[in-house]
Structures are given as structure tokens and as C-alpha cells.
Amino acid sequence: MNVPDYFIPLVVALPLLGAFLTPLVSRLSGKARNAFVVIVLGVNGILIGLLASDILTNGIRTYVFGATDLSLPVVRILFEVDAMSVFMALIAAILSFVGVLYSLSFMKEYSGLDKFYTLALLMTAGMLGMMLTGDLFNFFVFLEITSIASCALIAFWTHKGESVEAAFKYIIISAIGALFILFAIALLYGQYNALNMAVLANSIQYTFLDKIALVILIAALAMKAGLVPMHMWLPDSYGSAPAPVTLILIGTTQASLYGAFRVIFTVYGGVFSDTAFASNVIGAFLVILALATMLIGVIMALRQSNLKRMIAYVAVAEIGYMVLGIGVRLNAALYNEVTQTVVWPPYTTTALQGSILHIMNDALTIGLLFLVAGSIYYATKKISVDQLGGLARKMKYTTVFFVIGLLAAAGMPPLNGFVSKLLIYESTYQLNPIIAIVAILASIMILAVFVKVFHAIFLGPEQESLKNVKEVPKPMLIAMGIIVCIILFFGLFPEFVITNIVEPATTAILNHTQYIGAVLGGV
To answer: Can you give the pLDDT at residue 522?
Structure first.
């Protein structure tokens, strides 16, 4: 199916326009506003689905605002959509739609909802812009839009001191990360007089300044993604924000991780294809950080009594699995003396496939667990594990959703987390068995964390103060049910998902020459 060219900018423009119209529609009535926001994100999700079908069938698509000659130093915005970027856009669409659907009941008792939904739409537009843009500076602009909207939503419960504190930490980290990204972009622009990723990838010489820019970009994007030791903002932000905000915030975190994918494998893809040493050094560094992220995340999760902070630390650990696949791919690069080229063993592609699939799986499983935590708070007004107990008798559907989420997060078959983690285990074992053992150990610890929580919250003795607890409203159950259905589909039909979604995304991110040819040859 061929979709019109305007579909590409429309998927960013639609939530952006919706954000500006939401306050006006809100003046009619709250129900009209709610319906408007759901329709905007629903239609946008359909557009992204149609665009994804086109990309997976016909290949890369581009759309240029402004001059089409990329050699001219003029202001322009270029969108590039390949299988990897549209894969990320699908994640953003799912998280945003489900988050807003969940909010219809979860947030209805609060005031200022016109601002809440406006910011949610702005965050969605920023996320999609980061995923679809083909220019580094525009990536920075969309990153800033996302950061500002996210900060305001984290602090939405202004009557809670921890929410304001978490938002303050988030905006400080975001500002520092954004400044470093801007500085790195300036280093590249000063050398090559270009901001377009394809132009940079085609021109980059791996000079000393290029090396500095690479290190800065990886560090800043890792900070925004919540990688240890730059993870300090994530548990506070995830733990203090309203549950639907946390769900969408997961998408913004992964948009930053996508930026790291794009920088490493597209902008610097030619460098790593020619220099095994550079690839090995960066890869070893990322493997070490990934392992530290897994272990610190699960160890800190064991120490928490606040349910949302516990899930947030597990989310930190899960980020380690995504980065591990990148590190294995880079660290296993070998230089062939005969052909004088860099080659990668086949298992490194498997590692990257596991990493990419785990991005989607993490968004679904951790997102589901946060929605369950939000449902528990909605029904009980409590979030401490020590103050909860016996909820399985009162909240049967929520209990089932939590069981599915905990098993998926721990990588248990036949759920989606098992598939991506198995790919990562198999590939990392071939690089170094110790790495695979650490990754498996972290998953076992995650399972232990959630089994303990499940027993305490759902199967423990019923608290006297919780006798009048009821199941949450239907919109919240439907939102969680949508995620559960996707989790089950990914787990039961892994071959279909890998063949039709993950493999094209992996091929797209690894084939930097195709990216360069599609952008430079198509405008």
C-alpha cells in the first residue's frame, strides 16, 4: 500500500495541532475534550500503522520542508522514515493512546485537565518528531519540546512535594543533556557544514572532534535514557508522576535510546564499518554500563517499599538489556586482513534484534505494571507495599494483569519478554558466557522482586482499611487490556513479529549506506 507523502509530517502535525486546539475544545465540555483527544491519538495511530505498512513493503520514505538541495546552508526540516523509525513511532502511538484512554477515569477528579491533555499531545508530537526527523538539530528541537512537556506533566500533582522535586531533577538532567547534545551537534556542523544525518554519515572522517562529538552524544543520550550511573532522575520521575504520564514518559526515554541507535549505526556507521578498534572500545564500554545498569536496577528494586519506585528501578534494569545488544554488536567487530574490512559474527545481528524487540517489550510490560500500580493507587489511595494486602479478592482483573506483567518483565515463556531476552542471552553467551549469566541472574532477581510484591499486595492478609476497595473503572481496564493483548500476541507469535517487524528494523538501522542513498538520492 502506497500512502501519500503528507502522511509523514501529518503524524507529527496532528498531535501538535490537537495540543493547540484542546484548550478551545475544553471550553465546550470535558467530555468533548476527552473525546477529541482520544480521536486525535486514535486517528494518528491509524496513520502511523498505514505508514508502517508502506515502509515495510516499499522501503524508506523522505519528506523535506524547504530547499531540497541538502548542500545548501538553508533552514529546512527533513523527515526520514525507515523500518526502525516507524517501529519506534508505533511504540509511541500505542503508549500515547493507551495513556490517554487510561486517563479518562484516572484523572477525572483533578482540575486543569485541559492543560494535562495539551501537554500529553505535545509530548507525543515531540516523541514522534525525535523518531522521524533526519536532522540532528531538529532532533534536538523535538527533544526540548518533549522535555518541557514531560517536566510539566511530572509536576502535575503540584500539591505533592515529591512530584515537584522529581520534575526539578528531570528538567535539570534534561537541560544538561540537551546542552551537551547541542554542543556535539555544533562540533559536527563546524566541520562539515551540515546537520542532516545522511550528509554527516556520508562525510564524516572520524577526526579528533568527531570522536569527542560521539562520546558526548552517547553520554547525553544515555543520560536521557536512564543508563547507570546517570539514572538518578528516572526512579523519581517514574515514581512520582501520575500513572498515565509514566506510561508516555517511557516512550520519551526510548526516543532518546533511539537517538543513540541512530548516531552509532547511521551517523557513525561508516566509521565502525572501517575501524574495528573504535567499535570494540565503544562496545566494551556499553557492555559494562549495561551490566551495571541491570544489577544496580534490580538491587535497588529489592530495597523499595513504594510500588511505583520499585517498578521504576526494574525499568532501569530493563534498559540495560536494550543497551547490552548494542554493546555486543559493537564489541564483537573483527577486522578481516584479507578483505581489509570489518566483519561481525552472525550472533551480533541476533543481539541487536533482541535489543530492538526488547524496546517494544519493555514499553509494554513496564508500562502495564505502572498502570496496575496506578489502578491500585486509584482504588486504595495507597502505594506502599506495607499498607496493602488481599487485593486479589477485590480487584480480580487488575490481579491478572499484574501477573501477566510480572511474568513478561521477568522473561518467562510464553510471554513477549521471554523472546527478546532469549535472543539477548543466546548472543551474549557467544561473546562471553559470564555476560549471559549476569543477564539471566538479573532476570531471576526481577522475578523474585515481583513475586514478593504479588504475594504482599494481592495474596496477603486483607487490610482493615481496604474492605471497601472496588475494581477500577472500565476505561482503565480496557487500557490495560489492550497492552495485555499485545503482550500475548508478541509472546505467542514471536516468529511473525521478528520476521515482519524486528528484522526489517534491524536491517534498516545497520544499513547506513541504504539510509544515505535514500536521503541523498531521493531529494
So the answer is: 47
